[in-house]
Amino acid sequence: MAPLDAYRELVERTRKIATLQSCAELLGWEERTTMPRGGAGHRAAQLGLLAGLAHQWLVDPRMGSLLAALEDSPLTADPAGVEAANLREIRRRHQRATRLPQALVEEIAQTTSLAQGEWQEARRRAEVKRFLPWLEKIVGLVRRVAGHIGYDGEPYDALLDEYEPGATTAEVARIFDALRPELVALNRKIASAPRKPDAAIVQRAFDPERQKIFGEMVAAAMGFDFARGRLDVTTHPFCAGIGPGDTRITTRYNPRRLNDALFGIMHEAGHALYEMGLDKATHFGTPLGEAASLGIHESQSRLWENQVGRSRAFWAYFYPQAQRIFREALADVSLEDFYGAVNHSAPSLIRVEADEATYNLHIMLRFELERALVKGDLAPADIPEEWNRRFRDYLGIEVPDDARGCLQDIHWSSGGIGYFPTYTLGNLYAAQFFDQARRDLLDLDRELEQGRMSGLREWLREKIHRHGSRYPAGELVRRVTGAPLSPQPLVSYLNRKFGGIYGF
Ligand code: ZN
Question: Which terminal residue of the chain has fewer beta carbons within 10 Å of its beta carbon, N or C?
Fold first, then answer.
């Protein structure tokens, strides 16, 4: 078979898989926004059927023979060329899927489905003993997954690779080890700072209808295109890239907290701008029309949420607008006090509520525990004690119960071991990208002060979005910033910012 014909057929097949998966994505969006509770059982059956079909198509032996026919063909001569990059990624996915025995895949699906129910119950009652046998089962299963997938360094590599292709555990550990003492030191400085912003300012009464108006205004200014996307309400906010021309974000409004919905919308709109900036017109259904990794995806949301949304420059323009919309709540608050309030930092128990200065410590703790579990260095039964010990060490607070400790996240019960590090990788990528944007766009701060965000958006589109998965994440960072991923940009950014607010 001529390489070009083989390639065409391969792309046709991946497009078909992607179209099927986009149906599942739409059903998933509907489930979390408008579906009546009674539809849950049938929806699980619908999603199960689609996932099974997509898996079947991906492991189809024909995919294997097409990939084999393209091995060492002239199409792969330029490793960064469209065809070679697509082949690299399609091969990776096909291999991952075919290396796992069907029986193991089914056992994981069944076990994690039950484990999630048990986890919910264990968390509700703060009874970790109820969940530990399930954690033990899941750790056993993912260790078997790692064995089948294979790895060069340690078993965790095989799990991490699912979420952050090309990243290695050793590399992530090296960066996290350099970051941890810096963050611990930063948080000590914040705790003993002479100045403290008043967090209560953003916990006044903020009418949800007005929060929606303000959030939509900010999203539109960022470049979220409401003709190619929409914003809805949900309990756990997310972004769903359904397909070309259809990217959806969700949020939740808390009448006593301005931060939640606003920064939630900016976060999800950041994800959405990435989806909208991918070249789906040409590359939909192939890796080049898809995000490079979860970490890169998260960098886009964090950059808009934090580097932009929690900056003084952004509020120089948007604060007067916020004061107009939330007249009663903000009439007596200065820009400086408001800027301090949205950046208030204090160690807290719950990861998803953590601020920029403490967030990554929550992730490191999870990464270290997961890595030790998968290696076999730590028994699942020892997790609660080890969690609490590290929490005291890194964040300086006692964990009062396991519900607010090791039971707080869904990831382990759903089998998502290897996922957590992508959150901190996202923060690291975001800081490094934003530094580069500052160097490339000399007027960036002034533009933000005038409410103009198109320069930054176009820069991100040009440097990151339009490439899709053409480059592995690590290489993309090097190409965009001229340097490998480093903890330094994030450390400098956090120290500069919190030093200014807290006066150290
Ligand atoms: Zn996100």
Answer: N
Q: Are 460 and 433 in contact (CB under 8 A)?
A: yes
Distance CA 248, CA 337 (A): 33
285 CA distance to ligand 1 centroid (A)?
Answer: 22
Number of helices and strands (H, E) in the chain?
A: 22, 3
Domain count, the chain: 2
Host domain of residue 108: 3-150
CATH number at residue 324: 1.10.1370.30
* Distance from Cα 252 to the centre of ligand 1, integer Å: 15
CA distance 188 to 80: 45
Comparing C-alpha atoms, which of 484, 487, 472, 431 is closest to residue 174? 487
Asked whether residue 200 is assigned to any structural domain, the reply reads yes
Ligand 1 centroid from CA 267, angstroms: 6
For 113-150, the pLDDT digits (tens) are: 899 989 999 999 999 999 999 999 999 999 999 999 99
Q: Nearest Cα to 177, choosing from 486, 386, 499?
A: 486
* One domain, residues 286 and 375: yes
Q: Verify that 46 and 106 share a domain, yes or no.
A: yes
The C-alpha atoms of residue 429 and residue 51 are separated, in whole angstroms, by 31
Which residues, by Cβ under 5 Å, contact ligand 1, an ion?
A: 301
Gap from CA of 4 to ligand 1 centroid (Å): 37
Q: Which two tokens stand for residue 57?
A: 């198509």
pTM of structure: 0.96
Final residue of a structural domain among 105, 120, 150: 150
Tens of pLDDT, residues 81-103 = 999 999 999 999 999 999 999 89
Of 91, 325, 307, nearest to 208 by C-alpha is 325
308 and 456 in contact (C-beta within 8 Å)? yes
Of 83, 89, 268, 298, the catalytic one is 268
Q: How far is the CA of 197 from the centre of ligand 1 (A)?
A: 26
How many other β-carbons are positioned within 10 Å of the β-carbon of residue 18? 19
268 is catalytic: yes
CA of 254 to the centre of ligand 1 (A): 19
Alpha-carbon span 67 to 88, nearest angstrom: 10
pLDDT in tens, 187-225: 999 999 999 999 999 999 999 999 999 999 999 999 999
Same domain? For 44 and 133 the reply is: yes
- φ/ψ region of 203 (left if φ > 0, alpha if ψ in -120 to 50, else beta) reads alpha
Amino acid identity at 71: E
Q: Are residues 124 and 193 in the same domain?
A: no
Tell me how far the alpha carbon of residue 409 lies from the centroid of ligand 1, in angstroms: 15
Q: Measured between alpha carbons, how far is 145 from 104 in angstroms, rounded to an integer?
A: 8
Query: Would residue 293 count as lying in a domain?
Result: yes
d(CA 130, CA 403): 12
What is the pLDDT averaged over residues 453-463? 98
